[in-house]
Design goal:
Length: 127
């Protein structure tokens, strides 16, 4: 995972950043939403900052992959997630960091590995 771009915005502004993700060759992660309820989708959650209100995360278009008898919707290769935020009306001017987690379960054609959480830090500047 690469570093998200810095967010800059005034109070009440809608802002967004790209979160670069790269899945190793030969592996996939489940789409969001996943193809079945029992599968663990790629997901992003944010901790409350007070300055930024987390909005929708836009996930890429999934591809279909045949795994055993199932057809799954997955992400492979490199892609960006788009994280949307709204700057709070009473956000203090200045710098800060929005903290979050990227949760995923990597699988190959034979095995799914235990789910992992990766910390995400998005620097921001409130004008």
């Amino acid at each position: 995972m690469g570093a998200p771009a810095k967010i800059s915005g005034a109070r009440n502004a809608s802002v967004q950043t790209r979160i670069p993700v790269a899945v190793d060759p030969g592996f996939h992660v489940n789409s969001n939403p996943a193809a079945a309820e029992y599968l663990i989708p790629l997901s992003v959650t944010w901790s409350a900052t007070g300055a930024l209100e987390a909005g929708k995360v836009t996930y890429p278009k999934a591809t279909k992959e045949k795994v055993g008898d199932d057809t799954l919707t997955v992400y492979t290769g490199s892609f960006d997630l788009i994280a949307n935020f709204k700057v709070s009306a009473n956000a203090p001017a200045g710098p800060g960091v929005a903290a979050g987690k990227l949760r995923y379960q990597a699988c190959n054609s034979n095995t799914c590995f235990p789910p992992k959480n990766v910390e995400i830090s998005v620097p921001y500047q409130i004008q």
